[in-house]
Amino acid sequence: MWPRVDGLRALELGAPGALRDEQTPVAVVGVTAVDVLRFADVPWQFATAEAEGEADLDAWRDGHRRYWAVAGTPVEDETPVVCLRFRLV
Q1: In terms of residue numbers, what domain contains 59?
Q2: What is the DSSP string of the chain?
């Protein structure tokens, strides 16, 4: 569960450290859309917006499954995920 700050839910992007330091400034700009989907239903259009060199959607999913498994939070096809879209300025 996300922590609360002044009664509001806080959002943490990525794992603590360099990944979070890189992604958090993007969030400050502003979220333009939020979708809650099953992991298996994340579209390539969304994945390519945050892909880290993956060639296709299967590679993106495999990379994310490996990352979260190592972090101790395995991801399955039915796992709900929150997809945030940001407007960059």
Answers
A1: 4-86
A2: ---EETTEE----SSTTHHHHHHHHHHHH-EEEEEEEEGGG--HHHHHHH-SS-SSHHHHHHHHHHHHHHTT----TT-EEEEEEE---
